[in-house]
Amino acid sequence: MARILDDATFSVLNSLIFFHQVDIVNHIQSNIAFLTELFSIFSSPDADEQRKKDAVLFISNCSAVAKNIQAQSRAQLYHNLIQGGLLDVLTFALRHPDAAVRVAGSDVLVALIDHDPVMMRTYIFKAINEKTKPLTETLIELLLVEVDLGVKAQMADAIKVLLDPNASSTSMDILGRTNGDFMAKMRGPATGGNQMENFVQDFYEGPAKRLFKPLKDLEHCESCAWCLNFPLRSTVG
Prior knowledge:
The chain has 14 helices and no strands.
């Protein structure tokens, strides 16, 4: 319809869509009963697989809508989703045999990291301290076996951003300058340089070895060694 609408009508319709999206997101993030029921789908052994798939796609749609709303509302939404069990849902989605579900899960993960990588590092570091499997290990395991190049690229980008100490979210930086108390609540305890240093150290002492293992295995590959030592012959003349 954009080609047949005048500018004023087009602007009004866009405004209506935006405010409806804000209302939807605010309703979802404030409805604890709904969030509890949503995430209980993944913990219930009797839940239908199709229902789990639909729930992942629903969360992906919510994440896509949240990109257009104010940073504070977006941060509150992500915080409530993570408290409800979003990270476990992402693990389920990224391991799903259906490529559409894996793409949806990777989209949500990338949106979370782009929104606030410091927050994601905090949750991963918490999992490390609690001796549970962090998200980085799951990403690496799936990166090595993923066949969809789009999902593989998103996983690689996610790992790269998490390991980049200079990576930050512009929206969250702006929010932090305008509402420091809210930022402290969202991110929890202070995440200083020591935590980032420990996070990177833990990565290179553990998950990185699994990530680079295929490259290390090439050292003992006879066919690769033969290719490297094979003398190049000129094809000219």
